[in-house]
Design goal:
Elements (H helix, E strand, L loop, with lengths): L2 H18 L3 H16 L4 H6 L11 H13 L3 H8 L16 H11 L4 H9 L11 H16 L4 E2 H16 L6 E5 H4 L4 E2 L1 E7 L3 H9 L4 E7 L3 E6 L4 E7 L4 H9 L2 H13 L2 E3 L4 E3 L12 H7 L15 H6 L14 E2 L13 H10 L4 E7 L11 H16 L5 E9 L10 H4 L6 E3 L8 H12 L6 E2 L17 H11 L2 E5 L12 H6 L4 E4 L11 H10 L13 H14 L1
Parallel strand pairs: 4-7, 10-11, 11-12, 12-13, 13-14, 14-15, 15-16
Antiparallel strand pairs: 1-3, 2-4, 5-6, 6-7, 8-9
The protein binds one DNA strand of 29 nucleotides through helix 2, helix 4, helix 6, helix 8 and helix 13.
DNA sequence: GCCGTTTTCGGCCCGACTGTTTTCAGTCG
């Protein structure tokens, strides 16, 4: 049983305990355990088999025993028994906005409402308003929430949200009563998928700012509105929350609403140990024996807690507070550090722009070098190149280069890793290219062992410079294929193979949660847009955000190297072998 | 159920908003 499967079961246990009306701290302990497991990148199954799980902070004796039982037997009677107490569809009800465990329990106990369709029926028959604690308005809101649930997926990819978010920010920036403003929440932390959008504003005239916000053209409907807080539904279906505070409160509000929740809890705990109490408005003395320092921005806020400034992308409670306390936070990579990129397509395979157009776009973007890596012959669906067509492209690129291209063009290929781990082209062809991106595009359903062995075999080829989109995931659409990522990281370190950070907002693969580990093992990252048209090059922006979340610096990312050094770097692995 | 420089009991972040209440419970972030 994998870690993910264990997490799913623990998550269900938490919900079931909450439904039963158990002690809140009990089910929260299960949620904390899931969180701890998700962040844990060590050897999970060995630890579970040997009973060393309590070494992970947040997992105690009781939960560790349950996990061990799950890993060893694949079953957990405790979970089965809990589950038997409720109909299985009841979990869906948690996705309806406005419904929590207490209300779901009341609906189930008193009306037999145990699924979204039954809830819809009960609302339409006006049964819900008869329950104590419920009323006519609640009933209406539930119907609206059900409709919304049908209409929109709960999460949106960063690439969908970003243009809207930046547009709202720019429009609000021009409002005369806005003093300071920032996007906050998971957007500011550069998360790959977002549940909503948060905007924090400081102003002397909150009413005026709220009116301005309410009249933005992007807004579809207002979900709730108080004196300082407003939630709206945007036309794109995304929820957007606005908070207006005074300018003195702004650094605290911005920090609080940037999160993550776990980072905030740690920060508050740290404040307490220093004799301060921290909330979204201020820092205050616990016993009023001392007056707090003047805090005008987030840097001063972290300073007051004896911490170096922690960039938003790192605020996931994965060791950033400890590092900030010891002043050993990395200097994170920035957009301007990128000098080139490697995984790009042209009309030769399934791209929408020609070689010349891609080169011009790279030049306009200020890149010094561009790698072309079209698909190989087995990717028939993507018009993959035959040996002959690849050699033709090679000649075309050399001619373009000699004609005086402003951008250095590197010749590569995105070479399919076949089912058995062999490559789509023979070594003598690969050796004529500057580099090779090796990717899986078929047979996604192999077992974890087979898939891991398949990719390892490909990495052991001296001509494979880098590994493309490591897990094949399409965010919110296709699950990653089963593969042992720690083993792949170890192999990349041993063979000197770079791992791609695929910057396409549909992929963002390898996931940011693994980069810190990869970096510690000495694995090099390469940020590639997997561009299929000129504007796709801009996806590099999303890649930098994820690299920052993964604690990476310019030294960890190969395409930060200047042109004078990248050529040698591309040749290094093939010369080692 | 977890945790520990208030340590084996007694805490566990906490404020805003809504709706149903008539002082508060539930939900959300």
């Amino acid at each position: 049983m994998t870690k993910d499967q264990v997490c799913t079961i623990l998550e269900e246990i938490a919900l079931l305990l909450e439904l039963k009306g158990e002690n809140v701290f009990k089910f929260r302990a299960y949620q904390n355990a899931v969180r701890a497991l998700e962040l844990f990148t060590g050897d999970f199954s060995t630890l579970a088999q040997e009973g060393h799980l309590p070494k992970i902070d947040g997992i105690g004796k009781a939960i560790a025993e349950k996990i061990t039982e799950l890993v060893q037997t694949g079953k957990l009677p405790y979970h089965e028994e809990l589950k038997a107490e409720f109909p299985p569809e009841i979990f869906d009800l948690f996705e309806i906005q406005g419904l929590g465990a207490k209300k779901i329990k009341a609906l189930n106990d008193q009306l037999g409402v145990s699924s979204i369709p039954l809830l819809e029926k009960a609302c339409r028959e006006k049964m819900v308003e008869t329950l104590p604690g419920f009323g006519e308005k609640t009933q209406e809101k539930l119907l609206a929430a059900i409709e919304l649930h049908h209409a929109h997926a709960k999460l949106a990819r960063r690439g969908k949200v970003a243009p809207i978010a930046e547009a709202i920010l720019e429009m609000m920036r021009t409002h005369p009563d806005v003093t300071r403003l920032s996007l906050a929440g998971s957007y500011r932390r550069a998360k790959e998928v977002l549940g909503d959008l948060d905007l924090v504003v400081s102003s002397k005239y909150p009413e005026s700012v709220m009116n301005g916000f309410a009249s933005l053209p992007e807004i579809d409907s207002i979900l709730l509105r108080g004196p300082t807080k407003m939630s709206v539904r945007l036309k794109s279906g995304i929820q957007c929350d606005l908070r207006v505070v005074s300018d003195a409160e702004y650094p605290f509000a911005l920090n609080y609403f940037t999160g993550s929740k776990e980072h905030n809890v740690e920060l508050r705990n740290r404040a307490l140990t220093l004799g301060w109490t921290l909330n979204e408005y201020r820092l205050a003395s616990v016993d009023e024996t001392k007056s707090p320092p003047c805090i005008r921005d987030e840097t001063e806020l972290y300073q007051a807690l004896d911490l170096a400034y922690i960039p938003p992308e790192l605020r996931e409670n994965t060791g950033e507070l400890e590092a900030a306390a010891q002043n050993r936070l990395p200097k994170l990579i920035e957009w301007s550090n990128l000098r080139g990129t490697f995984h790009n397509h042209t009309t030769a395979s399934d791209g929408k722009n020609t070689l010349q157009e891609m080169v011009d776009a790279a030049d306009e973007l200020g890149l010094d070098y561009l790698g072309i890596a079209d698909h190989s012959k087995s990717s028939v669906q993507a018009n993959g190149l035959s040996e002959e067509r690849l050699l033709n492209q090679l000649a075309e690129i050399r001619a373009l280069q000699q004609a005086g291209s402003p951008v250095r063009i590197f010749t590569g290929v995105e070479c399919d890793i076949l089912k058995d781990g062999s490559l789509d082209f023979a070594d003598d062809l690969l050796s004529q290219l500057d580099y090779v991106v090796a990717s899986v595009h078929s047979s996604f359903t192999l077992s974890e062992e087979e898939m891991t062995a398949r990719i390892i075999r490909a990495m052991e080829n001296r001509y494979v410079t880098m590994l493309g989109h490591l897990t094949g995931r399409i965010l919110l659409t296709r699950e990653p294929y089963a593969v042992n990522i720690p083993k792949l990281i170890d192999c990349a370190a041993a063979t000197g193979t770079w791992i791609e950070l695929n910057a396409n907002p549909y992929r963002l693969d390898m996931d940011w949660r693994w980069w810190h580990l990869a970096k510690d093992k000495g694995v090099k990252c390469v940020i590639n847009p997997d561009a299929h048209q000129t504007k796709g090059l801009l996806d590099l922006f999303y890649g930098v955000g994820i690299a920052r979340k993964g604690w990476l610096t310019r030294n960890d990312v190969m395409n930060c190297l200047p042109l004078s050094e990248i050529e040698t770097a591309l040749r290094r692995k093939r010369q080692l072998a």
